[in-house]
Amino acid sequence: MKFEDALNNNEIDLKSLITFLLRNRLNLFVFSFIGFVISIFSHLNSPKIWKGEFQIVLNSKEDQIPNKLLNNFNRKNLQTQVEILSSPSVLLDIFNFVKDEKIVENNSFKNLSFLDWKDNLNVELLGNTSVLNLSYKDKKKEIILPVLKKISDEYISYNTKKKSRDIKQDLEFYENQINLFKLKSIKSYKLAQQFAIDNDLFFNLEDKKNNLQPVESVRVQSANIIRNLKEKLRRVEALDPYSEEILYIAKSSDVNNLLINKINILNEEIVRLKTFYLEKDTTIKTLSENRLKFLNALKNSLVKELKSKILVNEVKVKSYQRPKEILLKFAEYKNEALRDIQTLKNLEDQFRFLSLNLSKKEYPWNLITNPTLLPNPIAPRKRNFYPIGILFGAVVGIFYSLLIEKKKDLIIDINQCENIFSYPVLDEVSKINIQDFTKSLKFVVSNPSIENLDDIGLLLDNDIKEDIQMELKKSLKESSIKTNMTYFSDFRSILNSSPQIIVIQIGTTKINNLFNLIKKLISNDIKVLGFVVIN
User: If you average pLDDT over every residue of the chain, what do you get?
Assistant: First the structure.
């Protein structure tokens, strides 16, 4: 198979490839050298590309978490930040700066687009971190550091600007809501107050501990007092008029203290006299009778006092009693006023907090490394130019050699005979040792597929050199081969249809001529046994 055929069929015959390369090594060397020279001139004449870079980090609570614990949400949030920082909204001023600088040198840069310029800028996160690496490359060395400085300043202030913008929007919202709730709270307060005045209710927004309305609270309190007083009255009325218990109950009540004092004095006097006199003594009896009268009077006074208090509290209950609908409506008005006032207070607190936060300067982005210009250009590089030049020259040399060999149309590889024509190579003879041709013929006719044939034709290709043809003819006459072998110099000299062995010469026999010869043999029903190749 020819080398170009192997390439077309996506096959590589390693032996044929090596033979082809060795055969055309001079062409490969010449073209590789030319490619090397061209790469030297290209490298020297190519404009140098310079590169600078810096690193920046986002300070956040997430940075204190181990990398392996960073969740997908935080990662996506950082990636979103990278996309924003690479957008025209952030970098447009820097792009215009670069464009203006380049237009001064070359007016063609007027057509420079942002996307074309952005190809020189690389913004990426380093691994599973919040560290941002930014690099910028340009043919103009002097512009790189100013560009990186502008970008770093823009990145550092970006979040601060965004934060200020967001806070100002929030302040505007809260200011509008404060104005709205000021009017609303005044309206709801006036409505609750007017309703309280119209219905003789007590309105106090400071009373937040009691869930009941003040008027209802007083009514319930008075009702509880009435129940307590009635129970005490029942117990007093059930007592014996002369019971000592009346004195104890009276002491716990706000009743006639004069009677209580007189009874106490009589008790002391009776106790004193009993130490000197018997109980039958007239003085003691008189004092005891007076004491009983005072106890009865105290009981009556206590009953009147309790009934009086019950009446007072019943009047209070009556005066504080309101229809259920009035109380519920008043509670609704009061609660609405309280909510509006509390909402207004919360809005004002939030407004003050945002105002303070706006004046507080924060820089979420911090530089890890300052903008730095690499000491050497990143392109063009010798290690890239020279191998590519040599490789390109070698490829051109290969295709050139293929073209030359195809144009010559010669059999230059013994494998071509079998691969192109599908006939076996019976033997190979060196043209230097042509006298060994007889041995080769003996070897050929000893082939199991040939030795039983009576007649064999030996057809010499016309492209074989005449001196070699003479040597072959001479060797054939001197050979003592038992098989009847006839020599033919060309197709026209063949007199019968005996099988033919075709003798060809490497580097002399043309492929197209050999193809036509075999075609004629086949069309005349003459069998081709194979090739004897002179190398």
Answer: 76
**Which residue in the block uniquely carries the two structure tokens 């001196």?**
467
Alpha helix (H) ranges present in 373-432?
A: 382-408, 414-421
The pLDDT tens digits of the residues spanning 330-368 come to 778 888 888 888 898 998 988 888 888 777 655 556 777
Please tell me whether residues 39 and 183 are part of one structural domain: no
- What's the angle, vertex CA 59, arms to CA 58 and CA 60, rounded to 5? 110
Whether 264 shows a pLDDT value over 70: the answer reads: yes
Bin 285: left if φ > 0, else alpha if -120 < ψ < 50, else beta: alpha
Cβ contacts of 438 within 8 Å, gap of 6 or more: 475, 476, 478, 479
pLDDT of residue 495: 60
What strand order describes the sheet that includes 131-138? 121-125, 131-138, 50-58, 365-373
pLDDT of residue 136: 93
pTM score, whole prediction: 0.42
The residues, ordered by sequence, that sit 6+ positions from 371 with a Cβ below 8 Å of its Cβ are 52, 53, 54, 145, 148, 149, 151, 152
Q: What is the CATH number of the domain that holds 466?
A: 3.40.50
Q: Give the pLDDT band (50/70/90) at residue 170.
A: confident
Among 201-210, 387-396, 433-442, the minimum mean pLDDT is found in: 201-210
Q: Answer with the residue of higher pLDDT: 29 or 484.
A: 29
Task: List 124's β-bridge partners, or say none.
Answer: 133
Angle of helix 511-523 relative to helix 414-421, nearest 10 degrees? Answer: 40
What is d(CA 10, CA 31) in angstroms, rounded to the nearest whole number?
Answer: 25
C-alpha torsion 120→126→128→131, nearest 10 = -100
Q: Residue 511: what residue type? A: I
For 181, residues 6+ apart whose C-beta sits below 8 A from its C-beta are: 340, 343, 344, 347
Tokens of 47: 């404009």
Label residue 409 left, alpha or beta by phi (over 0 means left) and psi (-120 to 50 means alpha).
left
Tokens of 321: 């009693």
CB environment 27-65: b (16+ within 10 A), e (fewer): bbeebbebbbeebeeebeeeeebbbbbbbbbbeeebeee
Supply the angle between the helices 72-85 and 88-105 in degrees, to the nearest 10: 30
Structural domain contains residue 212: no
Of the pLDDT bands very low, low, confident and very high (cuts 50, 70, 90), residue 135 is very high
The total of structural domains in the chain comes to 4
Tell me the residue range of the domain where 97 lies: 48-201+339-377
